[in-house]
Amino acid sequence: FTHKSAITITLFMGSQSFIAYSMFAWFALMVSEKGFGSVFGANMLLLSQIIAVPVGFFAPLILGRLRLCYRPLYMATLCGLYIIGFITLLCFDSKSSVVFASICIGVPMGGVFAIALLFISTKSENPQIATKLSSMAQGFGYLLASISPFILGALHDYFGGFDEGLYLLVFMGFLVSVLGFLANKANTIKA
């Protein structure tokens, strides 16, 4: 629990899950409050999830096949799509911009999650360490992420909208990018 790589992977898992839990809980309402209705909002959440599924399958495979020098760029691009998606939601109000934002959010939602799980196994020297790292990264990571719907809901209630919550998610997108870079560079955890 004190290894630097384990802490980095745990924070990476928690921060990417923070965004995912926020989207599961509030994305449809975020879109609905832009004036498009709850059905369109639900469809945009569905679109982001439909995109996340195949990306979650292929993102770790692509990462594994890349040369080491291209992996940081790949991670930055994948995580950076969160930032693009949230800024698009903040700055634009058309249906096409919401569709674009849903796609930009869906890609990393699937890819970053799958890569976080990949790091648990690839950054562990043996199955015993992988088991311990898995329990730490997922246990503490999901615990950290579980507060995100409450935080976004409290921000919405206090400010009367989702703009401040989106600012928080932009910040979390930057944090996921930094932690993803660090987790990718992390040393293998040895016994």
Unreliable stretches, pLDDT < 50, 5 or more residues? none
Q: Return the structural class.
A: mainly alpha
Mean model confidence by pLDDT: 94
Strand % is under 5%
> What is the CA-atom radius of gyration, in angstroms?
17 Å
Structural commentary:
This protein has helices at 4-36, 38-65, 71-91, 95-122, 127-145, 148-159, 163-185. The radius of gyration is 17 Å and the shape is globular. By secondary structure, the chain is mainly α. The termini are close together.
Q: What is the element layout, followed by pairings?
A:
Layout: H1 4-36, H2 38-65, H3 71-91, H4 95-122, H5 127-145, H6 148-159, H7 163-185
In short:
This protein has about 190 residues and is an all-alpha fold.
Task: List its traits.
single chain, 191 residues, mainly alpha, globular
